[in-house]
Amino acid sequence: MDKITETEHLIACNECDLLLERPVILDSQKAKCPRCGSTLISARHNSIERTLALSIAGMILIFPANLFPLLTFELMGRAQSQTIFSSAMGFYYDGLWPLAVLVLMFTILVPACKLLLLFWVSFSLQFSIRLPARRFALRSYQHLDEWGMLEVYLVGVLVSIIKLASMATLVPGLGIFCLGALILVTTMSSSMLDTDLFWHKIGEADND
Amino acid sequence: MINTGQSAASQGLQSCHDCHALWRLSDQNTHCRRCGSALHLRKPNAMPLTWALLLTSTFLLIPANMLPIMMITSLGRGEPATILGGVIDLIDLGMYGIAFVVLAASILIPVGKIIGLLIMLVTLQFGLTTNMQQKMMMFRMVHWIGRWSMLDIFVVAVLVALVQMGNLAQISGQLGATAFAGVVIFTMLAANAFDTRLIWDKHPGTDSE
Fold first, then answer.
1. Nearest beta carbon to residue B136 from set A38, A87, A135
2. What is the DSSP string of A13-45?
3. pLDDT at A4 (0 to 100)
4. Which domain of life is it from (chain A) (predicted)?
């Protein structure tokens, strides 16, 4: 079999390998595997357009979220601000550089890469431009997805506020609101991404 | 003739791990012609890899909980803080809700994940194919919840960056935090290395007519 079209009417469950007729579903519906219950396909309304828009919004928001201070800590007339980057560097100065690298990756590098990759793929599909390495970009995005941990980081900031509130004054900065918006946008973009549709479109374009 | 309702493998088909396109079994060890990823019928070395990663994270649990994750210095007096100590401090402050969130994220979830993956591995090893729906549900939970264990690491990161006031008040990260991050990452990798389809291959009624 050289062409994918021979098996296009079939689908195999990704978690239990059950072979099924590909279900026909409407916008914003999901098809689940009857045997193991995993999601086979989940269609999204205007998936390509929306992921493109959300990835652009994310690429804009990532700058203020990283540049403005998240929190300012005031104690006896002295103040100390903190950004995402400085919280990674704190570990570096304490000699825990592996941890600094991990925090840097999970909270800055991976979220930024995810937005760029998603933008690359959805831009290429939206305007039918065959950008180089878009297959690699989408695969990379799928593998990076769970390693972006901005929302966990935000909850970490909130827990820190509670821990420090009794000993000093804490002032939330502009950064924390931008971070909140960024998390909203990235979460929506990954839930709006219909990978099945994206791969289908890429396969169609490459077969022509 | 391809029959649905059977495993794809029994019908001579394999799906690509990344884009889920279906190819013939004879395409094994080539690359998917749609997305370019390497084709394998099942994830290679799923069992030994998952065992190895799981054991690594189990061993790391010991230093993660015994060593301090941070050192709190106030007015010149240093005090090491462990993960469990942080939870107890929050309980002493009367913040039971937050104490529970931190306890869940840093102790219950990592231990629960390790137990969950252990159940999946034992299931596979001995071909125990009862309650498969529940086991799959549990595995999906384990997979989804894994990243939330990084919570405590991020809390320490924020505290270290904020509380830098010299002799007045100072918080510094300690080795326990590195070990704990190791636990989280190795359990996440273990969950990724595992292939649930291997268990379904042993499920009766899959391959028999």
1. A38
2. -TTT-BEEEPPP--TT-EEE-TTT--EEEE--T
3. 59
4. Bacteria
pLDDT tens, position by position, A168-178 = 888 899 999 99
Tell me which residue in A21, A136, A160 faces B159 most closely, judged by beta carbons.
Answer: A160
Could you tell me the CATH number of the domain that includes residue A132? 1.20.140
Does A39 share its domain with A49?
no
Whether residue A207 is predicted with pLDDT greater than 80 in this model: the reply is no
Per-residue pLDDT at A61 exceeds 90 = yes
A4 and A50 in a single domain? The answer is no
Residues A11 and A59 in one domain: no
Q: Spell out which residues of chain A touch residue B93, defining contact as CB-CB under 8 Å.
A: 166
B64 contact A CB<8A: no
**Would the CB atoms of B22 and A164 count as touching at under 8 Å?**
no
Is any Cβ of chain B less than 8 angstroms from the Cβ of A132? Answer: no
- Number of structural domains found in chain A: 2
* Residue B107 and residue B183 in contact, taking contact as beta carbons nearer than 8 Å: no
- A96/A115 same-domain check: yes
Residues of B within 8 A of A83 (CB-CB) are 161
Residue B207 has pLDDT above 50, yes or no: no
Query: A39 and A60: one domain?
Result: no
* Average pLDDT estimate for B30-57: 91
- Separation of alpha carbons B123 and B186, rounded Å: 21
Residue A6: domain span: 1-43
**Does A7 contact B11 at a Cβ distance shorter than 8 Å?**
no
Question: Closest residue of B to A148, CA-based?
Answer: B147
Is B208's pLDDT higher than 70?
A: no
**What is the pLDDT, as a whole number, of residue A2?**
54
* Residues A161 and A60 reside in one and the same domain: yes
Interface contact B15, partner A, CB < 8 A: yes
pLDDT single digits (tens) B91-117: 888 888 888 888 888 889 899 999 999
Alpha carbon of residue A177 to chain centroid: 18
Kindly report the average pLDDT of chain A as a whole number: 89
Q: Does residue A119 share a domain with residue A51?
A: yes
**A194, closest residue in chain B (CA to CA):** B19
Q: How many CB atoms lie under 10 A from the CB of residue A98?
A: 12
User: Do A98 and A142 fall into the same domain?
Assistant: yes
